[in-house]
Design brief:
With 188 residues, this protein is α+β, with helices and mostly antiparallel strands. 23% of the residues lie in helices and 23% in strands. A hairpin with a 5-residue loop joins strand 4 and strand 5.
């Protein structure tokens, strides 16, 4: 399976004002840097959990149709299209009546509808292409544990601008990454 980001998030789950309040920063000198840390924290949370936090569009490719085409980065918003390369190598779009979306599974699965058959595809690594929208509806819908983890990560990155602090004692907060566990997609 291949995966390609088509349209990234237009906004972040945490605003600069929220991050600055957490960091206890009043001035605007570091606003651009804090904005970059917010994006990095979101990307880190998305990587660890396997979820899309804000609305975005992806394409997943498969070698062929199978029992279930699993779509990464839940929650799923919608499937825009399911396309495939036919035996002649021409790109075809599948009628949505041929498939159904199993949104009880996480990640979501596309399965053929009862009584339908998948068409034959060209033998190619990207023979089936699914374009879909995913992510929580807005920042308010992102789980609080994920936002708390992001704020802690932003605080760590803002306070320690080098990978190692010489002469400082090492302290670990082992519970921090556990904030993401309830929202992690396991076994994908």
């Amino acid at each position: 399976m291949g995966l390609k980001l088509i349209t990234g998030p237009a906004s972040e789950p945490i605003t600069t004002a929220e991050a600055k309040a957490h960091l206890r920063v009043d001035g605007a000198d570091d606003d651009a840097y804090i904005g970059a840390l917010i994006a990095a924290a979101r990307q880190g949370a998305e990587h660890i959990t396997g979820r899309a936090l804000m609305p975005q569009t992806w394409e997943a490719t498969f070698e062929r149709f199978s029992c279930a085409l699993r779509l990464p980065n839940p929650p799923l918003v919608s499937v825009a299209s399911v396309k495939y390369l036919d035996g002649a190598g021409a790109l075809q779009t599948i009628d949505p009546a041929i498939y159904e979306i199993n949104d009880y599974a996480e990640p979501v699965e596309i399965r053929r509808a009862h009584g339908a058959t998948w068409p034959a595809t060209l033998c190619h690594e990207n023979a089936v292409v699914v374009r879909y929208a995913c992510g929580y509806a807005n920042a308010a819908a992102v789980p609080q544990e994920i936002k708390a983890w992001m704020l802690l990560r932003i605080g760590l990155l803002y306070g320690s601008r080098e990978p190692v602090v010489i002469g400082a004692p090492v302290a670990e907060m082992p519970f921090v990454d556990r904030l993401l566990d309830a929202h992690k997609i396991w076994g994908f």
